[in-house]
Amino acid sequence: MNFPEHITSALKNLGIAEMNEMQQAALEASEQPKDLILLSPTGSGKTLGFLLPLLNALDPEKKAVQALIITPTRELAIQIESVFRGMGTNFKVNATYGGHSIRVEENNFSQAPAVLVGTPGRIVDHLNRRNLDLSYVRTLVLDEFDKSLEMGFQEDMGAIVQRLGSVKKRMLISATDLEMIPEFTGITDPLKLSFLTGVNAQLTLKKVLSPDTDKLYTLRTLLCNLSSEPTLIFCNHRESVERISDFLSESGITNVFFHGGLEQDQRERTLIKFRNGSANYMVTTDLAARGLDIPDIQHVIHYQMPLTEDAFIHRNGRTARQEASGTAYLLLSQNEEEPEYLEESPQLVKLNDDKPLPHNPNWTTFYFSGGKKDKINKIDLVGFLSKVGELEKHDIGLIIVQDYTSFAAVSRHKATSLLAKIRDQKVKGKKLKIAIAR
What we know:
- It is a single chain.
- This protein is an alpha/beta fold.
- Helix content is 30%, strand content 20%.
- The chain has helices spanning 5-13, 21-29, 46-56, 74-86, 102-108, 120-128, 145-150, 154-162, 216-224, 238-250, 264-275, 309-316, 378-387, 415-422, and strands at residues 36-39, 67-70, 93-96, 115-118, 139-142, 169-174, 191-194, 203-210, 231-234, 256-258, 281-284, 299-302, 326-333, 347-348, 363-368, 396-401, 406-411, 426-427, 430-431, 434-436.
- The strands form four sheets. The protein has a seven-stranded parallel sheet, with helices on both faces. Strands 10-11-9-12-13-8-14 form a seven-stranded parallel sheet, sandwiched between helices.
- Helix 2 runs parallel beside helix 3 (46-56) and helix 6 (120-128) crosses helix 8 (154-162).
């Protein structure tokens, strides 16, 4: 099928050679007048599955919010905004979410974005403050809708949808099927596309038995057997997450931890470090089970088993994504039974107790106290690190530029000497605080 030039251009700007089957089906289905329900697993590229159809519906002459994307988490809002920017269109996009400066968001809305993506509570807050005019919204996307319901956002979402009087197309995106669609969505006779295939053939399930009820030492041994590959370690409680992270750090294993109790700044730094390879292990609650841009996960470890099969599926969905393979490990104590929702017992793995500790990550994250609002971009930081820091191209990794801060991954073995060279230097004529990110 031949797609419009702005679609092929967006894909090219994202470095995508061709759409997958789900994305192409969603784009074709969007040309029909019906609302759309898109069901697809975590990691299947659902974000493009709704952004490309949404792009088709935008009018460059209209200076108003034309598309509203409601999503359950801050991280997902940031991710969607980033993907849309990466498409290289001329349409303005803004994200709004709790933990982000209200004043900055108000300033962003002084010139209305064509696309607004945000969490339910923060969108309602702006509506109550009369900071937003959503009367021209033609396209409504309810992303990770099952997660939004699970997190109790029905009332806020209903309040938002009630204020949308001009919607022509509704798209509901979910990683699990829904028995019924709530009335407040306004979706009555949708076209439904399901790409939920059940068991992921690329995923291998294994189990490890711990001789101790407290499985910390077995976890450490397991990590020593996994060759320093990117790994998510799932727990059910925030306290467990921090206790396990502390234990691994004390054992000499570099890691980060992630849960809903962290301040937004901490959450963003954690994800940046994990994405850019400054930490190969992230200990987390189910908050990281979906909706986060953390690619190339090789292993998932269930330190504590989730209570439901849905949660188990979503955790496992972080690995073996697209065409890649991956492994999920169940870490069980001797007296701990396997969950009833497992159809068959996973393969038992015997660990080698003589393996050395995982090697340190290849990268270290540097923090800069300046960002987009200071007219600093990625090219500026690459030039600064190359010229002033005397780094080679291969010593510079992923660079993230935010509104008021920036982060750059650099080769770990160059970090100390680099800091001495650049600490008191100016970036683009500006004196910034520069430090190794904590």
